[in-house]
Amino acid sequence: MKKMTIFLTVLLLLLGCSKKDEVKAVQTEKTVEIKTEGEGAKVFFTKDISGEGVMRIYEMIADSVRGNVALKTHFGESGNKNYLKADLSKPLVQKLGATYVETNVLYGGKRGKTESHIKLAKDHGFDFAPIDILESEGEKEIPVKGLKHFDKVVIGEHMDRYDTFILFSHFKGHGMAGFGGAIKNVSMGFGTPRGKRAMHARQRPLSDIDKCIKCGLCKEECPENAIEIGDVVVIDPYKCSGCGKCASLCPTDALFIEKQGTEIFMEKLVEYVKGIDENYHMVYINVLANISKSCDCMGSAPAPFTEDIGIVAGTDIVAVEKASLDLVNRATGHEDTFEHVNHISGNRQIEYAAELGLGTENYVLVDIDK
Fold first, then answer.
1. Strand 363-367 relative to strand 41-46, pairing
2. CA-to-CA separations, 75 to 116, 169, 224, 324, in angstroms, rounded
3. Which of 5, 58, 72, 358 has a CA 20 to 30 Å removed from the CA of 269?
4. Which structural domain range is residue 60 located in?
5. How many Cβ atoms are within 10 Å of 285's Cβ, its own excluded?
6. What is the distance of C-alpha 314 from the center of its chain?
7. Which pTM was predicted?
8. Is there a domain that residue 5 lies in?
């Protein structure tokens, strides 16, 4: 009877607990220090996650916004419930007369083609402002120098239509980058499908057959139909795009990306930001809500693992990302929350961005609610 009780307890923990419960169950006593005065890049914060809250925090960076404005957000994969809903950015977009901008994804599905991508966006409530798929009429290459992985970045030619880009980013987990925020929104968000393939290149998942429970989630979610499940999980290398969805969803970590591969992937993201940052003017708003382990490209994203935190904004992408990460770590009590939930630390994104001169990790958090 005792053995049966233990078995049922473990089964319930594996199948019934949300990630939110899991994080809290092992929460540490570590306190994350967040500087609120002194020298450093200013990052603004509010707990008010609403259209009104977005408007208030936007006013803190409004002086840096000029000309024809585009707002870059993620319209949400079909079936996803965690993406930032249209009502959150609607007041800002309408005030500025801005255009929503996006690029098509590397894999198939509704977000893979311009017409169906725009229809999905409108079905998700983004039907009150123009939508521009940036590479719908072609792409352009921007040469970059002195980087490890790229000598050019490939973006949509429509980017030249705009004077300011507001990166309206959902800060949450990511199966290959640890977390996804403004850096990923710029890189994968502005990179065309050809650019996305270059960033994902050679980042193929590995499998541990001893951990596989043959639940089928990986096969169900794979956008390239690259996975077959028999005695073992088989990933077709000629079909796999390296998107990492399968590794992100696997409940037993039977599918995973090697650490070296994930750090190279993060560096590639940052190098794309570098190429874009040198040619286009951007400001950043990160929303820390519905924070799950997975990105909004998942049709079956898991439940959030912590409470909603707030919104941060600034003109320094490194400072905004660092503040966002610190706030999540403070909320969960973990030194590295995303390493805990995804077994991948996203810190390399911030470190490498600072190394490339994209900004500073030294910031001052200004709470506009006080």
1. parallel
2. 12, 11, 20, 21
3. 58
4. 30-202+259-367
5. 26
6. 17
7. 0.81
8. no
Residue 17 pLDDT > 70: no
What's the whole-number average pLDDT of the chain? 87
Phi, psi of 122 (to 5 degrees): -65, -40
One domain for residues 173 and 289 = yes
Instruction: Read off the pLDDT band of 259 (50, 70, 90).
Output: low
Whether 213 and 105 map to the same domain: the answer is no
Pairing assessment for the beta strands 282-288 and 310-314 based on DSSP bridges: antiparallel
Query: Which pLDDT does position 258 carry in this prediction?
Result: 61
**pLDDT at 185 > cutoff 50:** yes
- Same domain for 278 and 245, yes or no, is no
What's the CATH number where 223 sits?
A: 3.30.70.20
Q: Mark out the alpha helices in the chain (DSSP H runs).
A: 2-16, 19-25, 51-59, 86-96, 114-123, 182-190, 193-200, 217-221, 245-249, 259-277, 317-332, 337-342, 347-355
Give the per-residue pLDDT at 1. Answer: 44
CB–CB of 84/49 below 8 Å?
Answer: no
Which candidate, 84, 85, 79, 132, places its Cα nearest to that of 110?
A: 79
Q: Give the pLDDT confidence score for residue 12 in this predicted structure.
A: 37
Q: Do 149 and 64 belong to one domain?
A: yes
pLDDT tens readout for residues 90-110: 999 999 999 999 999 877 688
Q: Which of 249, 277, 309 is the last residue of a domain?
A: 249
User: Are 244 and 274 found together in one domain?
Assistant: no
Specify the residue for token string 């809500």: 289
Q: For the chain, what is the domain count? A: 2
pLDDT digits (tens, 9 = 90+) for 168-178: 999 999 888 99
Domain for residue 88, yes or no? yes
What's the 3-state SS for 118-177? HHHHHHCCCCCCCEEECCCCCEEEEECCCCCCCCEEEEEHHHHHCCEEEEEEECEEECCC
80 in any annotated domain: yes
Q: Give residue for tokens 């810190």.
A: 347
pLDDT digits over 140-160, tens only?
999 999 999 999 999 999 999
Nearest to 297 by CA among 191, 165, 174: 174
Q: In the predicted model, is pLDDT for residue 28 greater than 80?
A: no
What gap in Å lies between CA 363 and CA 101, rounded to an integer?
A: 29
Does the residue 310 lie in any domain? yes
